Amino acid sequence: MTEKLSFEQQMGELEKLVARLERGEMPLDESLVAFERGMKLVALCREELARAELQVDKVVSAAGATVPFGGA
Questions:
Q1: Which residues, including other chains, have CB under 8 Å from residue 71's CB and lie 6 or more apart?
Q2: CATH of region 7-62
Q3: Which of 10, 15, 20, 64 has the fewest Cβ atoms nearer than 10 Å?
Q4: Are 42 and 14 in contact (CB under 8 A)?
């Protein structure tokens, strides 16, 4: 895939893949391809969330706050 999907688009595609896999709509070979795509989407989403967490940490740190990410 050459185009860069947004985080929301990646999550949407992942949700659709999971739903199709759960319903058993696909033959085994297609299910394996979908599973592989889903795992790639999970990795992309994790990377995006890690970048967002770093950005939030920088903003919090620049503001002089001491609340860790996910805290409060």
A1: none
A2: 1.10.287
A3: 64
A4: yes
